[in-house]
Amino acid sequence: MSEALSFILSVIPDLARGLWTTLQISLSSFALGMALAVVLLPLRVFAPLPVSAIARGYVELFRGTPLLVQLLLIYFGLPSLGIKLDAYTACVLAIGLNSAAYQCEILRSAVKGIPEIQFLAAESLGFSTAQTYRYVVLPQALRVAVPALVNELVTLIKESSLASVLGVVELTRRGEYLVAYTFRALEVYTAVALIYLVVCSLASQAARHLEAKFRIPGYERVSA
Amino acid sequence: MTDPVLIVEGLRASYGKHEVLRGVNLRVGRGEKVVVMGPSGSGKSTLLKCIVRLVKPTAGRVVLDGDDVTGDHVDIRKVRAKTGFVFQQYNLFPHMTVLRNLTLPLEVVKKVPKKEAERRAMEILREFGLEEFAHRYPLQLSGGQQQRVAIARALLMDPVLLLLDEPTSALDPELRLEVLEMLIEVAKQGRSMLIVTHELDFAKAAADRIALMDGGVIIEEGEPGEILSNPKSERARKFLVEIEVGIKNLSASARSAST
Predict the structure, then answer these.
(1) In B122-143, which positions are buried (b, 16+ CB within 10 angstroms) versus exposed (e)?
(2) Cβ neighbours, 10 Å, residue B71
(3) Which class would CATH give A2-223?
(4) Is B65 an 8 Å CB contact of chain A?
(5) Pair B188, B176: CB distance under 8 Å
(6) In chain B, what residues touch A111 (CB-CB under 8 Å)?
(7) How far apart (Å, rounded) are the C-alpha atoms in residues B235 and B224?
(8) What is the spatial distance between Cα B127 and Cα B88, in angstroms, rounded to a whole number?
(9) Domain extent listing, chain A
(10) Residue B87 is nearest to which of A121, A127, A143, comparing CB atoms?
(11) Is A213 on the interface with B (CB under 8 A)?
């Protein structure tokens, strides 16, 4: 048992090199998803029918199909249309596009919690819809959504393991390499799982701090 | 009335199939304070919202400071920037400080430079004894303090007409007074005001005219003394008795809350 444990500990530095790529993929795709969600959200919530239906269609499409299929479609399917992406870019793009749909829905439910009078107050002051979104709606929605957004990031850290399918050498793929020349699948994948667990726990821990930091002052008094 | 700041003619509005305004006619002169009273569901709030087109009327005309609000070619944001609107509650943006709540509309809508916006905001906060709240967040203030800040924000935009939709009715009885006192002070400054309220104290102290609404129309209109002491219609008489009783109950609960 102690031999197994020391083997697990010995492979961790090697696996950690893959962890860096895992974090790069998850953080980049989270940022891409956030950027798209911030654009998608007003189209979904404020835009007139044809546009809001398209935004809704986007969300349904990416939430209603498996991420792995989306990944394969982008990496193996797009070259038929003349768009050839390297494996890393394809992963960030696929996971980012997918996450945009989820982040949009997270922000949309946060927007629903904003009293309607807030919108009317902004309009009555002479704000345009874009200004209302920029100054009143989005900052409040983002603050309320911090826990759910961090949860989404944790999901992405785990989902980024799908990149191994395309041969990107991230944490899981590095684990596969190690198994290939040590034949110790149990220990290696246990180590891989432990690393994911630690990283995801740290992210959840950070969420609590972020939540406290971004909480609207006085909110705890009202909700108490 | 020469040169009225607001003309409302034959105004109609509906929510779906339910017609809320059924032909409202009203004028507010410059510097005039008009109080709108009426039972709930009589269309008072909708009337105020139609004036700045937060609700789109189905028929009729609204002319505000010479701009035809109901016309097709009006720049509604410009019209809104000329008025100040205070709602029952949730007026302030909770994620920004009181000071930022005041400076943001000046900067964004009136394009006032940041420093100048801050100077003007602090000046008005000082005028109404609110400067100690400048760096606090709205949810850290009492309901009454929040409403006073909301009124200050509306005034800061230097509106040609101040519209107030039941500014005290969401407040606890003991908090109403501070808002009422501020409103009476604002009224004395000579600003045109159209205010939906059941506060008889305000009506008596500051209103030039009272308009009683029921069933989507104005059923009676006149000077406060005349309307409150000698209403012509039975409906008006009945409604005034109801709010007198309501106020007595409120005062009783305020007394018991303070003891």
Answers:
(1) bebbeebebbebbebbbbbbeb
(2) 11
(3) mainly alpha
(4) no
(5) no
(6) none
(7) 17
(8) 23
(9) 2-223
(10) A121
(11) no
Nearest to A105 by CA among A58, A143, A140: A58
Q: What is the distance between the alpha carbons of residues B166 and B48, in angstroms, rounded to a whole number?
A: 11
CB B243 within 8 A of CB B200: yes
Q: Which residues of chain A neighbour B138 with C-beta distances below 8 Å?
A: 218
- Which of A136, A218, A221 is closest, CB to CB, to B93? A136
Owner of token pair 């000077």: B223
Contacts A–B by Cβ distance under 8 A: 76
Instruction: Determine, for residues A126 and B105 on separate chains, whether the beta-carbon distance falls below 8 Å.
Output: yes
- Alpha carbon distance B216, B43 (integer Å): 5
CB of B89 within 8 Å of a chain A CB? The answer is: yes
Report chain B's C-alpha Rg in angstroms: 18
Q: Which residues contact B37 (CB under 8 A, 6 or more apart)?
A: B44, B196, B197, B198, B203, B210, B211, B212, B213, B239, B243
Q: 3-state SS of chain B? A: CCCEEEEEEEEEEEECCEEEEEEEEEEEECCCEEEEECCCCCCHHHHHHHHCCCCCCCEEEEEECCEECCCCCCCHHHHHHCEEEECCCCCCCCCCCHHHHHHHHHHHCCCCCHHHHHHHHHHHHHHCCCHHHCCCCHHHCCHHHHHHHHHHHHHHCCCCEEEEECCCCCCCHHHHHHHHHHHHHHHHCCCCEEEECCCHHHHHHHCCEEEEEECCEEEEEECHHHHHHCCCCHHHHHHHHHHHHHHHHHHHHHHHHHC
Per-residue pLDDT of chain B (259 residues), as tens digits, is: 667 999 999 999 999 899 999 999 999 999 999 999 988 889 999 999 999 999 999 999 999 999 999 988 888 888 898 999 999 888 899 999 999 999 999 999 999 999 999 999 999 999 999 999 999 999 999 999 999 999 999 999 999 999 999 999 888 888 888 999 999 999 988 899 999 988 888 888 889 999 999 999 999 999 998 888 888 888 888 888 887 776 666 566 655 655 5
Cβ burial, residue B217 (10 Å; 0-12/13-18/19+): middle
B13 φ/ψ angles, rounded to the nearest 5 degrees: -150, 150
Q: Largest alpha-carbon pair distance within chain B?
A: 57
Q: Which pair of structure tokens corresponds to residue B237?
A: 């008489």
